[in-house]
Amino acid sequence: MKILFDDNYFMGQAIAEAKKAYFEGEIPVGAIVTIDQRIIARAHNLTEKLNDVTAHAEMQAITSASNFLNSKYLSNCTLYVTLEPCIMCMGALFWSKIDRIVYAASDPKNGFRKNDTNPHPKTKITYGVMGDESSNLLKAFFKARRG
Fold it and tell me: Which residue in the list 26, 58, 84, 133 is annotated as catalytic?
C-alpha cells in the first residue's frame, strides 16, 4: 500500500528547510522537490554561506533534483517552496519544465507575479499553502535582524 502525502505535508518539509536557513543566518526560505510522492531534493537559502546571490533555495533544489534524476528537465516533479519565487528562480523553473510549483507566502516586492514573469505554459501553480507559518518565520527573521 502506497502512502500518499498532501501539499501540507510537503510544505511542512519545506518549512523545516527554511528553519535550517533561519538558524544559519540565511533568509529563511526552504524548498523541496518531489516526484511520485517522494522527496528527491531538499534545499534552503545559502546566499550568505556561499557568498552567492544565486544560491536561492529554489536554485539549490533544482540542481539537486536534476542531479538525482540525471536530467535537466523536472517533468512530473513538484517544487514546494516557502516563498513565492523571484524572477531569477522562475526563469530557471521555466527552463526546467517543472510540472507544478506550490508556494506558501507571497512576495509582493520581489515575487514573479509582481514582475509579470510567467511560468512555463504547462506548469501549474498553487499558492497560500501554509502561508501564515512561512510569513511569520520571515517576519521573525527580519525583525531580529533589524533589532
Answer: 58
User: CA-CA distance, 91 to 108, in Å (whole number)?
Assistant: 18
Is residue 58 annotated as part of the catalytic site, yes or no? yes
Residues 73, 97: contact at Cβ < 8 Å?
yes
pLDDT band at 123 (very low <50, low <70, confident <90, very high): very high
**Under 8 Å CB-to-CB from 86, ≥6 apart: which residues?**
56, 107, 110, 111, 112, 115
Q: Give residues with Cβ within 8 angstroms of 73, minimum separation 6.
A: 96, 97
Q: Which of 88, 38, 41 is nearest to 60 (CA)?
A: 41
> What pLDDT, on the 0 to 100 scale, is given for residue 90?
97
Torsion of the alpha carbons at 53, 87, 9 and 100, rounded to the nearest 10: -130
Kindly report the pTM of this predicted structure: 0.95
Instruction: Note the pLDDT of residue 145.
Output: 85
Q: Which three cell numbers stand for residue 27?
A: 533568509
